[in-house]
Design goal:
It contains 12 helices and 12 strands. The chain is α/β, with parallel strands linked by helices. Helix 11 links the parallel strand 8 and strand 9.
Length: 336
């Protein structure tokens, strides 16, 4: 429990009185939100927050047989791509009575598996964002706990991801129109599902336009990975570069400019993700934008459906979803 605005200890009855509902309705709102209509749920939660009321999680776990928590595992919390995803998942579950436990694998597959197995014992459900583990391992964990995959599609586990085809189609069309005919793709982690999708889409679209695509890497999906890739880019004698993500693109550009190579004067650069700093750098980065907040909400809705049947009145989400990407043209691409 928490303290009310006048310093008294808040109780479930105090929340009920302020909201104009019964104590049992407050209890249902906090424990089984799917059983309460949206307006009542909103009013109860607002009154609970105003009074500072917090339910006893330990008691709830004993009564309900649930921890009232979900796990969220991401590859690298320092990567700005994941910040809006984390915030989106937490914001969604904040209104449902569930706490979110966040874990960072530091881009290590073995750590990811270990953390996922630990979440099986500590959470009611699990969101794996950009997981590196094998499909067999994912299915093994999903057999023990409700699992949703984000930024990776699956035929057997509920999943939501980005459809890279529209954004990459636009990016290749843009580069081709600027006269580029020999380009490089800076590959991300080999065990990354999204890396494989981006590489294949680029290969197919470039082949359609008679653009020679040179694949370099893999590189770690960080600024340092791009910085390390720059010398290989120069050795590959290409006029344009598609990077696995924006951090890699920014690292390449930094190293190239340090060597006196002008971007886009001599080499054009296209990133992927549209992280906030992509538009803040000089020159701002041309990149394929992905709908991260929408993917976060979709993943959270999928998991809530697995746990309690979903939000009241909301249609059940499909077992697999893809959200479209798009090209954002800025100043790192130019004519040959």
């Amino acid at each position: 429990m928490g303290a009310s605005e006048d310093g008294a200890r808040a109780t479930i009855r105090a929340v009920a009185a302020l909201a104009g509902v019964s104590a049992s309705t407050v209890s249902r709102t906090l424990n089984n939100p799917e059983l309460v209509n949206a307006e009542t749920r909103r009013r109860v939660l607002e009154c609970a927050e105003r009074l500072g009321y917090q339910p006893n999680r330990a008691a709830q776990s004993l009564v309900l047989g649930r921890t009232m928590s979900v796990g969220l595992i991401v590859p690298d919390i320092a990567n700005p791509f994941f910040a809006p995803f984390i915030k989106g998942v937490e914001a969604y579950f904040r209104q449902t009575g569930y706490a979110v436990f966040l874990a960072d694998t530091d881009e290590d597959g073995a750590t990811e598996v270990r953390l996922a197995e630990a979440m099986v014992e500590r959470a009611d459900g699990l969101i794996l964002c950009s997981p590196r583990m094998s499909g067999m391992r994912v299915r093994s964990i999903a057999a023990k706990i409700p699992v949703v995959l984000a930024n990776r599609l699956s035929r057997t586990v509920p999943s939501i991801s980005m459809d890279v085809q529209p954004g990459i189609e636009q990016a290749v069309t843009h580069i081709h129109a600027l006269g580029h005919r020999r380009c490089a793709y800076l590959s991300g982690p080999l065990d990354s599902w999204s890396n494989r999708q981006r590489r294949k889409a680029l290969h197919d679209r470039c082949a359609e336009r008679s653009i020679e695509l040179v694949v370099l890497g893999p590189y770690e999906p960080r600024f340092t990975g791009g910085y390390r890739a720059a010398d290989e880019v120069l050795a590959a004698d290409v006029t344009a570069v598609f990077a696995y993500n924006d951090l890699v693109a920014l690292g390449v550009r930094s190293r190239l400019e340090g060597r006196g190579v002008r971007v886009p004067g001599e080499i054009s650069m296209v990133g992927f993700d549209d992280i906030p700093m992509a538009s803040m750098t000089s020159p701002p980065l041309t990149t394929v934008a992905v709908p991260v907040p929408a993917v976060a909400r979709g993943a959270a809705a999928m998991l809530l459906t697995r746990l309690v049947g979903g939000a009241p009145g909301a249609p059940p989400p499909p077992p697999a979803q893809e959200l479209a990407t798009r090209l954002v043209i800025r100043s790192t691409t130019g004519p040959t």
